[in-house]
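Inputs:
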Amino acid sequence: MTFSSTLAGGDGGNALLVLPDLAGTDARSRRLSVMFWISLGWIGLVVIVAIFANVLPLDSPTAIGNANPGLGPSWAHLLGTDELGRDLLARVVYGARVSLIVGVAATALGVAIGGTLGLVAGYLGGIADVVIMGAMNVLLAFPSLILALAIVTFTQPTLLHVTLAIGILSIAPLCRVVRASTISLSRREFVQAAQVVGVRRRRIIFREIVPNVLPTALAVALVAIPGAILAEGALSFLGLSVRPPSPSWGNMLSEGRDVLAKYPLIALWPSIAMLLTVLSLNFVGDELRGHLDVKEGGL
Amino acid sequence: MRRVAIKLVELVVVVFFVTAITFLLLNLLPGSPALSILGANATPHAVAQLDKTLNLNHPLPVRYADWIGQILRGNFGTSEVDGQPVAQAILQHLPVTLELLVLCQLMAFLVAIPAGIWAGYRKNSWIDRVTTGGSFALLAFPPFIVALLLVYVFAVRWHVFPATGFTPISAGLFSNLRTMFLPAFTLALGSVAIYVRVLRSEIINVLEENYITAARAKGMPSWWILLRHAFRPSTFSLVTVAGINIGFLIGGSFIVEQIFALPGIGLLTVDAIFSRDYVTVQGCILVVAVGFVVINFIVDLLYPVLDPRVRDQRIGRMRVSGQ
């Protein structure tokens, strides 16, 4: 049933997901580090600001002509203004919404569909396993961004389609992880005991297996979110996500590129926002995985 | 041989599905594909005409068989925008992308191999911490941010490299490499991060093996042990990850070609997307996806060459899945 992707250990198609595991958790301490809390703080800040963007005392992210173009940071405009005089802070904050919505919704889709398929494939085995994993290998056969790009191109770029396209990308890696831990769990004594006693299959899956697979799946999902954010950024940068003038970090970068020589700050702010967010999510995910001692791809 | 045969069957199955999905993409277009391509103002006659050229009047399986037959004969259809054969456009753009990918991988290995070996050898030293931390941070850097940063520093500020544009090799290798340097470097950084991490942990594991202790006891110099005894078995994981990484690089090359205006497959595709040239988009996606599948197939076949342990399939499986 395997193609090359299985050779990488648990989750082939998404190299980002492979990494933290391969890095080895040899010398990692059991206590969460200061960096962990700083990262968590940043993520919290971004989430809160994105949720309450409407309520915060921000300028309109799209209104043109409220201020001079290309201003540097000042009290009135903390991050300055862009080439059309729009407030950059407001644009970065509203851009965070797009990134977070897509990142979380796409990953949730991956957990829901990939997780269910992984459970079914891992627990039932046999034909179901072969068919499901075959389908996953086909999904992984496409270079990830290209599949998303193809879907968005042919269904027209809207926030919903972008989320669906990126969600589809995260199905296969999550399915592999959940399948692997389901298989190893169903060999454990407590599951076999339940089987021997005659507990119904559905009950075994939901009462015995799901609660034990969930931490693994969530830890992997946490690492999948930054991947989804970057994928949205890439599509946005190419002009295949939310349409300007609505801001997203990706399309702000794309606009900033055109005026890079004149107003380098326009590209700088969304870059920093995106880097810090992705870095924090990677860091928190990595540390939690080490902390929970999640081992994936044991099969 | 059995192994190769099984892999070959898998290859055929995966290629079938990949081509089928690519074929079906055109059907995702809202409304009739012909209408989407021609725009809302198309005359019914033109729509009927395009329906005929795209073979839209037949049932799906027939259309797929017909389409794949044409593809196998090298006919990728004709662009509805400029009337150029799609196959020709792809052939013109493919070499640029391939050069970009080759250069980027050369750069990545040139940096990652010494860094990864050294970090693994001197585990927990400051060099190790810097490389591990640095590669972790690099993972958060998408190519579109790295590219903008490099353009700003090396093109806008220092004028060392051109910001955009492409000089073909025929116009001189040096000027060609000058236009390729920043794009290849942008893509290489992400790969460096991945390869360093993989190589480091492999080297750490391998150095604990008994045969390494034996080699040390024999009085072999460290560099010999590292290169000859430790690096060689580590290449196994490196090649695996490099194979998977190609998928990322292809995505990255689309972005990088866009930023640096390199006339590769990525630029061709994105331009085609915006001019609603869906036949070209479909052709490009087909070439890229099938290319990726074939590269991974070749990587798979390479394992026994690299690692004699894989020649015994059972042991190979255990090793592969055990990491």
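The radius of gyration of chain A is 22 Å. Flag for discussion at group meeting.
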